[in-house]
Amino acid sequence: MVALPRGQADRGLRALTEVGLERQARDWPATLSGGEAQRVALARALVREPELLLLDEPFAALDALTRLKMQDLVGELCRAHRPAVLLVTHDVDEAVRLADRVCVLRDGRIVTDEIVAVDRPRDPGDPAFADLRRRLLAELGVHTPTAAISDRHEKEWPE
């Protein structure tokens, strides 16, 4: 584990265990998948027990399934370690899923600052999740179909 004083390898191994990579402790970085590399980066960040964790598009290079798993892992680890977290993302669903507060920036200024008042675990099918998502997308200039259109599709495509 990088950046630990000598004799503290056990802390590094505990961090790798937290992210599910204890078996890869001796593997070379080049042999890790993208998701594994992201988990190592997370372990490296959390092993020093930071008060502030900065995450800049941490899931951008991951496939959709790995991205969802990593979002869950980051949420679990942040609840366990309790750092303040600043997550930068262009993914509105990711922001609503993970954040307690979402800010939208335009031209370097905050134009929206919303508390995420959606119960955890957050489900995109939850009306409160969908409403916040719709408001944030509208603020970003993306307009989604209205509820009437969604209702019509449900009638056309019964489950």
What secondary-structure arrangement, pairings included, does this model have?
Blueprint: H1 9-18, H2 34-46, E1 52-56, H3 64-81, E2 84-88, H4 92-98, E3 101-106, E4 109-115, H5 127-139, H6 147-156
Parallel strand pairs: 1-2
Antiparallel strand pairs: 3-4
Textual characterization of the structure:
The chain is elongated, with a radius of gyration of 19 Å. The strands form 2 sheets. The chain has a two-stranded parallel sheet with strand order 1-2. Strands 3-4 form a two-stranded antiparallel ribbon. Helices cover 45% and strands 14% of the residues. Residues 148-153 have low confidence and may be disordered. The longest helix has 18 residues, at 64-81. It has helices at 9-18, 34-46, 64-81, 92-98, 127-139, 147-156, and strands at residues 52-56, 84-88, 101-106, 109-115. The termini are far apart. α1 (9-18) crosses α2 (34-46). The protein has a domain at 91-159. It is built from 6 helices and 4 strands; from the N terminus they run ααβαβαββαα. The chain has 159 residues and is an alpha+beta fold.
